[in-house]
Design brief:
By secondary structure, the protein is mainly β. The protein contains 2 helices and 19 strands. β10 and β11 form a beta hairpin. The longest helix is centred in the C-terminal third of the chain and has 11 residues. About 35% of the residues are buried.
């Protein structure tokens, strides 16, 4: 796992089967050098760098989520640890301005913490409902949505504008294989997902252009009589504009 610092040439690197995390200076790409190391609890699965601070979050096989202070990369210091998962913590992500931290586990749950004070993480929510392990987490550019790649072939999106009262925004199930990673594009308009079948799928998240595309390619629009015949009692809503 390789995680670049957001605003300077420093990289956090770890490998499967090794509890050690290396901090690598990459100002000279031809000659990167290890400037510090630390050992996380058990084996680290995923890292996430705070967007504005020298802090790295580590999700580990021991089910812990650790925060490490890397302001002095030669002497990393563990700030805090959070637990509660019934199995290994597989992925972790900072959201927005870095005050919210999300982590997920093979126990199919996602947890959200308030880490405005990284020394005292405060749990905000536990999200359940997936049918398989969660492999990835990413926040949207605005920090108001959280997406997960799930082993059951779905990409989940939650509205976390208010993390303690989150809602399910969408469940995208058309991938057909495990979704190992699902992430937003830089403008947040498209979700990109990939898995072990070597394909990448893109989902358009704004329904208006999707509806416009569908309406431009369909044949004869549904008439009000056809609507009433097939959907009796449901108020008529022409899918492609007014057909009256």
């Amino acid at each position: 796992m390789v995680e670049f610092a957001p605003d300077r040439p420093v990289v956090a690197v770890t490998a499967t089967g090794d509890a050690k995390v290396a901090i690598v200076g990459a100002s000279d790409l031809a000659a990167p050098r290890v400037v510090g190391t630390f050992e996380a609890d058990n084996y680290p699965y995923m890292l996430s760098w705070h967007p504005t601070a020298d802090i790295v979050a580590v999700a580990s096989a021991g089910g812990l989520v650790e925060l490490w202070d890397l302001s002095d990369p030669t002497d990393p210091t563990r700030i805090s640890e959070s637990s509660g998962f019934e199995s290994q913590a597989q992925t972790v992500a900072f959201g927005g301005d870095g005050t919210i931290l999300a982590a997920a586990s093979t126990d199919r749950s996602v947890r959200l913490w308030d880490v405005a004070d990284p020394a005292v993480p405060r749990e905000l929510a536990r999200i359940t409902g997936r049918a398989d392990a969660v492999y990835s987490l990413h926040f949207s550019p605005g920090g108001d949505r959280l997406t997960a790649g799930v082993g059951d072939g779905a990409a989940w999106i939650w509205d976390v504008t208010r993390p303690d009262s989150h809602t399910t925004h969408a469940v995208l199930t058309a991938y057909g294989s495990r979704v190992y990673d699902a992430t937003f594009t830089h403008d947040g308009a498209v979700l990109v997902g990939g898995g072990p079948d070597r394909s990448v799928r893109l989902w358009q998240l704004d329904p208006e252009p999707v509806a416009a595309t569908l309406c431009s390619t369909v044949g004869t629009p549904v008439t009000e009589d056809e609507w009433e015949r097939h959907l009796p009692g449901v108020p008529f809503r022409p899918p492609c504009g007014d057909t009256a």
